[in-house]
Amino acid sequence: MYKFGGWYQKNSINYYMSKGVVSKDEDYSQWYNDLVIKADMAEYSPVKGCMIIKPYGYSIWEKMQAVLDVMFKETGHVNAYFPLFIPKSFLSKEAAHVEGFAKECAVVTHYRLKNDGEGNIIVDPDAKLEEELIVRPTSETIIWNTYKGWIQSYRDLPILVNQWANVVRWEMRTRLFLRTTEFLWQEGHTAHATAEEAIEETEQMLNVYADFVENWLALPVIRGKKTANERFAGALDTYCIEALMQDGKALQAGTSHFLGQNFAKAFEVKFTNKENKLDYVWATSWGVSTRLIGALIMAHSDDAGLVLPPKLAPIQVVVVPIYKHEEELENIAAFVKGLTAELKAKNISVKFDKRDTHRPGAKFAEYELKGVPLRVAIGSRDMQNGTVELARRDTKTKETVAQEGLSAKIESLLEEIQQNIYQKALKFKTENTTEVDTYDEFKRLLDEQPGFLSAHWDGTPETEQQIKDETKATIRCIPLDNKQEDGKCILTGKPSSQRVIFARAY
Amino acid sequence: MYKFGGWYQKNSINYYMSKGVVSKDEDYSQWYNDLVIKADMAEYSPVKGCMIIKPYGYSIWEKMQAVLDVMFKETGHVNAYFPLFIPKSFLSKEAAHVEGFAKECAVVTHYRLKNDGEGNIIVDPDAKLEEELIVRPTSETIIWNTYKGWIQSYRDLPILVNQWANVVRWEMRTRLFLRTTEFLWQEGHTAHATAEEAIEETEQMLNVYADFVENWLALPVIRGKKTANERFAGALDTYCIEALMQDGKALQAGTSHFLGQNFAKAFEVKFTNKENKLDYVWATSWGVSTRLIGALIMAHSDDAGLVLPPKLAPIQVVVVPIYKHEEELENIAAFVKGLTAELKAKNISVKFDKRDTHRPGAKFAEYELKGVPLRVAIGSRDMQNGTVELARRDTKTKETVAQEGLSAKIESLLEEIQQNIYQKALKFKTENTTEVDTYDEFKRLLDEQPGFLSAHWDGTPETEQQIKDETKATIRCIPLDNKQEDGKCILTGKPSSQRVIFARAY
């Protein structure tokens, strides 16, 4: 374990438990890391770049999966499962694809360990694979090799398949949830008879992602297309949704690719079309990952801890009893039992924390840290008065309300909190999206008030690269709803017909 | 692809689609393989030993996951996720554990590919890992290394965590679902303050598995303990459920292990107990896998195809219209619309197959092959008479029933089918479980009427091994509800106090 050295030790749970959460303004990056670890979302593992998703963090992923899975099925998709390993030769079949992924592949070369006779476990040199296997960084190649056997005619199309899986991309600089060597995701892979139908699917899934991120993560996004430089390796067009984090950096929250006939050509997947002619099949792929959990944390949280939108919060309401004597607790517990039943009937998750090992104040801080949207505190006086104290995590406001009608009140408050978190993020995004017309202003804003910068660009990869080299800002996307507008490229002054969105990004 | 040669080609879908399903009595093994492939459950992949789980097969896994996940949560467990990779040194820390898994480990040695300058993609020799990583064959080691950071005192216990994941065990002889190099499973890993509590957990989870397999897969099992020879590598006790397949071979359907303090000692996981003394933590682990889908197919199916218990069938009811003219179909469709709504309200999944590209007979054969429990056929005369034809997959019986009250009739029939499939399997198990008192009889039955053989054994690993070497039969388990009974070992004649269950096994 210690051979992983400083990295592991410095990031171990004990290291963090001994310190508070650093403030967001002081060190945004450290604040994020502290939050993830102190709120029990995830921790680093001894395998470099891989994380352990702890139960609290994983339960958010489970909620995301459940919602997305329904959305995928409602749009006609089914799930399947393809192998973890991809023969090296498969990856090489699509030139741009292998170019994009070769540098970050985990390679399996042997299939056995053995005892060397001196008590050491070593890799058995006699168990070398004839052809190395790549741990999938994405599954286009193995899936299109499979589709070859599934498709003969247009009657076999479309194929609308999704896979929930783990993938591995060997990352040198990692960050919990946002960029890890192994991550969990879903990858949709569809096959179509026409380019139009494939493009329609690509756009449909982008809209599914945008709806999900806006309505469930309470995070407004820009829907757009990537420039050629930023496209998925092997795609003709990459659509994306881009969100803005509280430090003004962009985060790509989901992508949907129109792959054209590239993979069909690489794997010789042809079909007989309605005109009885042979043609290559048209493809899309689309994915979101556990990165979304990172976006969720970064976008809404504050110095006291997570702020979770109610729709994805593992615990939506926590009830903390305040009492001195056991009889008081019994009295409170009887009330809470009824409340819990009412809330469960409304599909609201509630936790009654009656631990006698922690004071109410410590419990308040714990649930604040964990981002529980609503806290109900009940003491003996409340029981006499028929009231409770309700505290909102998002606004940090408290009010005393009647016990009568409490579950209905909670239900509407949760709705309101979800909306409020979204509106706050939307306001932030609006205030931090700026039209810029000169390169000096562009650079000044990146340093002084980073955010989405809407600027003219001459459309060349060279200009895009030079801006990136000089400012670390990339073109996040060309928005789908862009208005046409004459202007001049901020770098070269050459003519441009539309603005694009620049930002520094995660 | 062709480098995988005969194996892949011979097992490709096209190879099978051109042939019928071989009869069960003629070649049981081939019958099983044909069924899996022709019913669209799974197919072989070009990665040796790895399979592709097709949408129809995967939807059964999704149903299994959904039910088990609720059962796990009802017994207090939560889900989490640990890394796919395990440092080689971790695996070596528990001596019996590494001994058990070393021979079947996929080993990652490099983390990058590169272009060799002549257009070939090769493994980059400069990207060799300092320590090799093992693709998890099971996660005890990485999880217990993590638990070390989670546990200080008895107040941190128990930890009740489950993981849904893929694992890899390099198998030389594979069989779809039953034994594959990569498979999907869940693995529970719990930590306890006392041996008693850990044993109670081990037994609880065995009972969860047995309930699930009996009530959902409609498959009766024997609950028992493994002998020392057959234990999980690193366990003090392995509990198992054993089911009987139609060829008289046993199939281990789930295991639950009492790991004692072995992994806590290997990873130095100590806690302060209630008496304020340091002690090692007690462990369990338990798992079931996609192997269950293989058991489901093998146990109930026949020469015409799958026979799926309604509770796990992806499609529970299929409706096939029989018509000549478009107006007839419209009439039928209007009725089916109402029926579908009624069935959906009862949570019964129904498919209306109105494809005009297939004749009714072809559809009947297809759903028979796919094991759909109930088929409703409706023609124009049925519409006039207010009737439908109902066909059961399990008994292959047909009856004409009234349209009125049809959804209630279907609901109760599905219940009846579930029970009937279970009772049939129970009868088979009872008839093929035989008490045997001599070795000659034992060997004769194994050849002539294989099944569970209940026999006396002297309790030594040597005798167990000799019987295995001579007959290929292993001790499947020592049943938990065993009655004590004096007898003599069938091989050595030495005294024995209880019978154990022998069988040849998958």
TrEMBL record, chains A, B:
Keywords: Aminoacyl-tRNA synthetase, ATP-binding, Cytoplasm, Ligase, Nucleotide-binding, Protein biosynthesis. It is found in: Cytoplasm. It comes from the Bacteria. GO terms for molecular function: ATP binding; proline-tRNA ligase activity. It catalyses: tRNA(Pro) + L-proline + ATP = L-prolyl-tRNA(Pro) + AMP + diphosphate. Its EC number is 6.1.1.15. The keyword Lipid metabolism does not apply. GO terms for cellular component: aminoacyl-tRNA synthetase multienzyme complex; cytoplasm. Its main location: cytoplasm. It holds the Pfam family ProRS-C_1. One of its GO terms (biological process) is prolyl-tRNA aminoacylation. HAMAP family: Pro_tRNA_synth_type3. Catalyzes the attachment of proline to tRNA(Pro) in a two-step reaction: proline is first activated by ATP to form Pro-AMP and then transferred to the acceptor end of tRNA(Pro). Homodimer. Belongs to the class-II aminoacyl-tRNA synthetase family. ProS type 3 subfamily. Consists of three domains: the N-terminal catalytic domain, the anticodon-binding domain and the C-terminal extension. This is Proline--tRNA ligase. It comes from Mucilaginibacter gotjawali. The lineage of its organism: Bacteria, Pseudomonadati, Bacteroidota, Sphingobacteriia, Sphingobacteriales.
